[in-house]
Amino acid sequence: MSAVLEKISAFGTHAREAVSEDETRLAGHVGTTLVRTLAGMVEIEQEWRQLESESGEACLFQSFDWCANFARHAKGREQDDFRIFTLRRDGRLIAILPLATRLNQGIRVLTGMTEPFQQYTDMLISRGERPEAVFRAILPALKNAGADYLHLGQVRQSSPLGQAVANVIRPAGEVDGAPYVQLSDWPDFETYYQSVKSKTRKNMRNARNRLERDAPLTHLVAREGQVLADVIERSFEGREAWLERQGLTSRAFRDSGFAEFVNLFKEPAGTGIQTIAFSLQHGGKPIADQWGFIHNGRYYAFIAGWDQDYEEASPGKLHLGNIIEACYDAGLSAADFMIPAARYKFTWANDAVPVCDHVMPLTVRGHIHNALWLNLIRPMAKQVAYAMPTGMRSLLFRLVMPSRQ
After folding, report:
1. What's the rounded Cα separation, in Å, for the pair 360 and 27?
2. Is 365 within 8 Å of 148 (Cβ atoms)?
3. Contacts (Cβ under 8 Å, ≥6 apart) of 405
4. Dist CA 339 CA 348 (whole Å)
5. Are the C-beta atoms of 207 and 313 separated by less than 8 Å?
6. In whole angstroms, how far apart are CA 214 and each of 207, 209, 399?
7. Domains present along the chain, CATH in parentheses
8. What pLDDT shows up at residue 15?
9. Which range among 26-30, 203-207, 255-259, 356-360 shows the weakest confidence by mean pLDDT?
10. Distance (Å, rounded) from C-alpha 279 to C-alpha 263?
């Protein structure tokens, strides 16, 4: 684990690999166009889906189905100004970068289309294209989008967008990590399990045995029905309660529309997105829940929760083992536990991808906001807030960051 965390902390301090000018240009007739409506999205649906199949391994949050569900959800609410940038060469769609403009503290920000519900920002590109060359071709359109600054949140270093901006936009803020297990590195769960440290296996076995002295442990997996709906409900309420206890905040949970969006996946057939729920139960009582999505053979953990009465038994750690086994049973190639790089995830995950934001000021106002707020005041304010007692910090967040209607 220490080696993985060192890799994460070192990201952003290394010099980027230089590329030649020719490598940042695209051949042929290249043009950028904007898609700003759901109807426009539907017009390019088939091309969009083709790019999904050719793009990086973790592009769920830029998939057609995810973005279309978000666009439908936005109707009737204060809608964002969708800015889906598409790049064509000789008439063929070779890239999609789904963004939107939002007003934040009087500053117009160009950011991920489905923020704050998405977990990664990425760009879909056709197989064989050079990410940086593609991004540089789109960049003039980004600069003319009418925003004060460009914010690409939670970009995975290894993703097409991460590779694209490495020499163009420096990382901003803290660097986090997304723990994952590349399931395809082992033929089956038993072989993978033997790769886990023997001490970890012993600790997990002992914890499981202690619980089973009182009642049996069972693990439920569901892709539809009441179990799925119950896991989504419990985990959402549990995460809200956990944030409150810790005196923490979340942009997604502050958004009054997040619960409604999450509830769409209680009946996933209508979303087009494979949804899966896991529940570890002790004598029939849920002690750890997690649910997420499956896309292109990859599991994305979205929301997890656990029963506080079982805290000493580390139910979250125990549950990850069951989840990984279920992912093997489903024939998946990877299990992505996403940010943050919480220590308990490394009980089972053996690697993590560095993840960070990238910010580019586009106007004078954007430069001032970036220099004063993002680089100076905000980091200091966070440091002060996290030094406060939990109750005081919780009150502060409610006052200065109320729910978004």
Report:
1. 26
2. yes
3. 78, 256
4. 15
5. yes
6. 12, 9, 45
7. 2-177+355-362 (3.40.630.30), 183-332 (3.40.630.30)
8. 42
9. 26-30
10. 18
